[in-house]
Structures are given as C-alpha cells and as structure tokens.
C-alpha cells in the first residue's frame, strides 16, 4: 500500500512539474528535468534501497560526503563543488538549496543543520523518522522551483 501511494505521489509530482513548465511558457521538458534530477538525488541518498525510504543515517552520511576536509561542516564552496561535479543544478539553484540546509545561517552546513533539515523533510507529510519519496519530492521541489532571491547591492 505504501509503495502504491508513493508511486501515485511521484506521478502527481511529474504532472505538476510538467504543468508548471507549461504555465510559465517554458517547454514541459523543464519540469520533467527537475523531476528527474530530484528523483536521482533521492535514489543516491537512499543507500540501503531496501524499503524505499531514507533514514537519518542515510541522510547524514550522504550530506557529509560533501565534507572534503573532514571538519564535519560543509562550506558553500564544498557544496557548490560537488553539485557542479555531479551536474545536479545550476549554481543559483545549488546556492538556494545550500541556504535552506544552512538552518542557522553560519555559512556552513553542520550536523545540527542536517538533522533539522531531515526533520523538515520528514514532517512534510507524516513525522515517522524516515523520509518517503513523496516527502522528499515535495520539499526539494519547493527549494528548486522557488523564485530566485534578489541580491541587495
């Protein structure tokens, strides 16, 4: 039953992204590209790939893989470097996602930031100690598709 609802949720988001692309006068491919990238990132985080959910341990270890210098904090440079390497999103989108993960705004994603972010994903639908594909898609897609922040000069 949970797998069926997860598949329906993914289908719903695919339709939503496609419609969002059309609504803004962009090719529907744009929405589908975002959906595919977010789906791929979820698969990378779901390391055990047994139950289709992401546990806190999986989430922590995946985010901490971006910590190149071993200080248990991911700097903006580390974040942008790994995103550029895997080609997930453009620099502006990666920056917005970094800012969302950096919950205390100290320009580094630390363990407390990662745990708080996990909690945000987990609470998107039901707080149960694991992130479902739908919860992940819901929160991550909001981060990716939200309007760019204006810089004050």
Automatic annotation (TrEMBL):
Pfam families: EF-hand_8. Residues 89-124 form the EF-hand domain. Keywords: Calcium, Signal. The keyword Calcium applies. PROSITE patterns: EF_HAND_1 (PS00018), EF_HAND_2 (PS50222). InterPro entries: EF-hand-dom_pair, EF_Hand_1_Ca_BS, EF_hand_dom. Residues 1-25 form the signal peptide. The keyword Cytoplasm does not apply. Coiled coil: none annotated. This is EF-hand domain-containing protein. It comes from Sinanodonta woodiana.
């Amino acid at each position: 039953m949970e797998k069926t609802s997860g598949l329906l949720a993914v289908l719903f988001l695919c339709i939503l992204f496609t419609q969002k692309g059309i609504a803004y006068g962009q090719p529907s491919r744009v929405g589908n590209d975002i959906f595919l990238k977010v789906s791929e990132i979820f698969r990378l985080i779901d390391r055990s790939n047994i139950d289709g959910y992401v546990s806190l341990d999986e989430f922590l270890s995946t985010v901490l893989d971006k910590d190149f210098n071993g200080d248990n904090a991911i700097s903006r440079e580390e974040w942008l470097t790994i995103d550029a390497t895997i080609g997930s999103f453009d620099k502006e989108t990666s920056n917005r996602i970094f800012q969302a993960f950096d919950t205390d705004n100290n320009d580094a994603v630390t363990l407390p930031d990662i745990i708080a972010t996990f909690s945000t994903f987990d609470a998107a639908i039901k707080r149960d100690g694991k992130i479902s594909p739908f919860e992940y898609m819901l929160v991550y897609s909001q981060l990716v598709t939200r309007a760019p922040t204006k810089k004050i000069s």
